[in-house]
Amino acid sequence: MQRALTSILRLTRPWRPLQARGCSSVGATGVPEIQVHALAGRDQGITEIIMNRPHARNALGKVLVSELLEAVAQLREDRQVRVLLFRSGVKGVFCAGADLKEREQMNEVEVGVFVQRLRGLMDEIGGTQRLPRCLGVALAKELIFTGRRLSGEQAQALRLVNHAVAQNEEGNAAYHRARELAQEILPQAPTAVRLSKVAIDRGMEVDIASGMAIEGICYAQNIPTRDRLEGMAAFKEKRPPRFVGK
Question: Taking the CA of residue 93 as centre, how many other CA atoms within 13 Å lie in the half-sphere pointing to its CB?
Fold first, then answer.
């Protein structure tokens, strides 16, 4: 089991920078639906994926999902990217969910394939399994059976979201809060952050003993990194660490 877990959790990937930073994709209408924008200056290391499908309120259609999958696949291999932000280029909306008008034109096989692609893109799909684990069975059933809509404050009270912010005149208060959070993550050791994410996500799917084994495997991958030594040196010298992701 230990050997199998180690193989599954190994994070070694070749470093391949994106050929085009700030690239964009073009949908069937000729209008870019996905834009990838790398921030600079003090925010270098933060990359934004911007959804731009205003006529459909950023609904998840074939083109948008295809281009989003392509962008995520490229960014996954780019070690210059430390934090990824998803934002909307359409004022007043983030994402309207599935494109039901487009879905009506699909046959059953096409719908099945499309849903599987969505599952590969977003962990949130699978609400009948994830929501009970987050809120408990009774409350999850109530929300799913009623289809109730929640405000940001209600979602935060239920701990479905971490933060709820008052809207500003520009309509981008949530983006600014997300960017502030990204700036907090940015200076941390990239490898340690990635391994922590793996340990948490995989550990939540198994019993506590297996979860501890997963954590041990992840920590073992962090031991030989230069960033671990830099963190200890910075602590000893009472200075901010300078992590490089190696």
Answer: 14
